[in-house]
Amino acid sequence: MYTDPISDYLTRIRNANSAGHRVVEIPASNLKKDITKILFDQGYILSYKFEDDSVQGIIKIALKYDKLTKEPVIKKLKRISTPGLRKYSGKDELPRVLNGLGIAIVSTSHGVMTSKQAKKESVGGEVLCYVY
Q1: Which of 32, 67, 78, 117 could form a disulfide with 113 if both were Cys (CB 3.0 to 4.6 A apart)?
Q2: Which pLDDT score is estimated for 121?
């Protein structure tokens, strides 16, 4: 039993990247599915697949590596808001990661999105993690 499923999700991806695995399996939830879709849309993962089993389902993520150097595309995954210390940002103070080279994933009242999308829609929310 783990208390922070988002941190577990990020750690599984981080560990699979450092071990050089092609595919990682993660227990599914709606929030994790939304984060996976964002990572795919932003080009950080190669593909993903949602599989339903009798309990809660599994997310299979195909990790993306650089063709020449064989290094993972995801350099760093950093959890920002934790269950013990929630971090919220208003629409005017949404974070920029590496001057726009990375993404911040934000949970808003309009759903989970990147900080750039949240600025366009003029909403703030809980800053879940940074990816670059």
Answers
A1: 117
A2: 97
Query: Does the pLDDT value for residue 91 go beyond 80?
Result: yes
Q: What is the DSSP string of the chain?
A: --S-HHHHHHHHHHHHHHHT-SEEEEE--HHHHHHHHHHHHTTSEEEEEEE--SSS-EEEEEE-B-TTT--BS---EEE-S-SSS--EE-TTS---SGGGTSEEEEEETTEEEEHHHHHHHT--EEEEEEE-
The count of C-alpha atoms lying within 13 angstroms of the C-alpha of 50, restricted to the half-sphere facing its C-beta, is 12
- Residue 119's CB is within 10 A of a number of other CB atoms, namely 16
Tokens of 98: 């590496």
Whether residue 115 contacts residue 95, with contact meaning beta carbons closer than 8 Å, is answered with yes
For residues 7-30, average pLDDT: 96
Residue 11, φ and ψ in degrees, nearest 5: -65, -40
